[in-house]
Every structure is written in C-alpha cells, then in structure tokens.
Design goal:
Layout: E1 10-14, H1 22-35, E2 38-45, H2 49-56, H3 69-82, E3 88-94, H4 98-108, E4 113-117, E5 120-121, E6 127-128, H5 131-139, E7 144-147, E8 157-161, H6 166-178, E9 183-190, H7 199-224, E10 234-239, H8 242-252, E11 257-261, H9 275-283, E12 287-291
Length: about 300
C-alpha cells in the first residue's frame, strides 16, 4: 500500500480476455490511473485449449497463416491499455485451478486488490457470477471488486452492509481507505419477533428494535473512525433482509458500490461468505467489494 494513501501499488484484473471482461477492464484502468498503480491482467488458459484450437483448424485454407486467439486478445488488450496511459503487465497461465492460480499471480505480483466481472447476463437482467468469481470472493485474502456496471468515473457513494461485527468494521475501514472521496452509507437489516402479537405490543417491539439498531449503528460508525467523521456517514437501519434493503436503497439513491465482509474458514477449509453476504454478492445491483475477515485462518 502507498504510505500516504491506502491504495495498492498493483491491481490484478482476473480476465478471460473476451468482451464480457470489458466492464471490469474499464474499472481496473480507471483505478490504476487514479492510484498511479500498475495493472496486472491475468488469464488462466485451460490446458486443453491450445490443442482444441489446433484440432479445429487442422485443415485450414491455403491463405491461413495461423492464429493464437489468446495472443490476439493480448494484443487488443495492450492497445486498449496503452491508449489510456496505464502500465500493464500480462500474465497468461496454463492449467491448474483457475481461482487458486489467479491468487498465486496476485501474490507473486504484489497486488493489493483483485478486480473481476460477472460471468454473463441472463434474460430479465439476472447476473451470473460464475464459479471462478465465486471462489475468488470466498478464498481471496485480498479485497475482491466484482464489477457489474459500466464505469462513468470514480465511485461516488458506497453502501457498507454491516452486522456490527469486527469483520464488518474491517470492511468499512478498507473501503474507506480505498475510496476516501466516496460518500458512505451503512446499511443494516434487523429482525423483530412480531408473529402472534397484538398491535400495541408489535408496535412497541418494532420501536425498541429500531432504537437498538440505530444506537448500535451509531456506535459502530464512531468506532470505525471514518475519514470525514461519524457525522458524515449515513445510517440506514431497517427491518428485513439486507440484500433486499440494498436493492431498494440502490434504486432510490445514487449508490455505485456496495461493501461486504467475508467470514473465515469452515471445517472444510473453504472461506465462507456467510449466507447474508452470499445473497448480497449474488443479487447486488451495483459493483461489490468483498473484504476478507482479518481473523480468518
């Protein structure tokens, strides 16, 4: 990280070098320029891909002089990056588990952030993460930025999903260090046991639950010591599922980045996002920054 700012010196873009990666590439280039950082673009090629391509063109026309689709994509990427004044390092790896190899490259290149995109967009706007993105979000010790939207400039407002835990506080501080100029809202969805209660008792429980959530939220924000002070952070504490709360809030206000903490290791030695964080990642209508719990083994 830079000594004066909490910015990575290098950024890893996990890319499959095709058109679906354009949004992630644009965001990675914007961040690299803003942070004066080196951009490392990593692509993991299936071990059988080259052989499959050779078989496909085993009887080409006389005028065909051979082509490597990966090298062609690399050239296009270099042209795109050079036009925007960013120092780009390309790493094309072959074989191995894709997410693990990408994280190895991030470590080897000294990267402080992983940027990636969704796998595809289905009818009705549903975005599919893809197994590699899901594994990166679960396993990466580095913050992972999952890009959904087109880049129109720096992030201006971010919503931090919080359950008041130490992991959420770490995610808040990490996001604030990466994007210090973005306005911050803290979102918290809480439950209140209301079934089978009379109206008066239900209203009393609702009011008590809201007051408790708001008091805990104010204490959480103050403990995070945001750069602009606690008064500059908006608190949104509402009953209901946090993933629905994020979608409603992002539809009403100009949020362009959501932040969530991942959780640590299970007995199966895999990093758990947690059920709420998983839903947030899968359904967020905006870019999502996933920050690893520093207490994870």
């Amino acid at each position: 990280m830079s000594e004066s700012k909490g910015w990575p010196r290098s950024i890893l873009l996990a890319s499959d070098l095709d058109a679906r990666s354009d949004r992630a590439l644009d965001r990675a280039l914007q961040l690299a320029r803003a942070w004066d950082a080196r951009l490392v673009v990593a692509n993991v090629v299936d071990a059988n891909a080259v052989e499959a391509h050779a078989m496909l063109v085993r009887d080409p026309p006389d005028w065909y002089r051979g082509s490597d689709p990966v090298h062609a994509a690399e050239k296009q990427l270099r042209d795109d990056a050079a036009a925007r004044g960013v120092d780009v390092t390309l790493r094309v790896e072959q074989g191995g588990r894709v997410a693990e190899r990408l994280l190895e490259v991030a470590h080897e290149e000294g990267c402080g952030l992983v940027v990636t995109g969704v796998a595809r967009q289905e009818p009705l706007g549903r975005l599919v993460l893809g197994s590699t993105v899901d594994q990166l979000a679960r396993r990466s010790p580095l913050p992972v930025l999952v890009v959904r939207r087109r880049t129109h400039g720096p992030y201006r407002r971010m919503a931090v999903a919080s359950d008041w835990s130490a992991a959420s506080a770490h995610a808040f501080r990490t996001a604030a260090a990466l994007f210090p100029d973005a306005a911050v809202s803290v979102l918290h969805g809480y439950e209140a046991p209301l079934a089978g209660l009379a109206d008066a008792a239900r209203d009393q429980l609702r009011a008590a639950a809201r007051s408790r959530a708001e008091a805990e939220g104010r204490a959480f924000i103050a403990a995070c010591e945001p750069p602009g002070g606690a008064s500059a952070v908006s608190l949104v504490a509402e009953r209901g599922d946090p993933s629905l709360l994020l979608r409603l809030y992002a539809a009403q206000f100009p949020v362009d980045l959501a932040v969530v903490a991942s959780r640590g290791r299970s007995a199966m030695a895999d990093v758990l996002l947690g059920s709420v964080a998983q839903r947030l990642l899968e359904t967020s209508p905006v870019d999502m920054l996933v920050v690893r719990d520093p207490g994870a083994r």
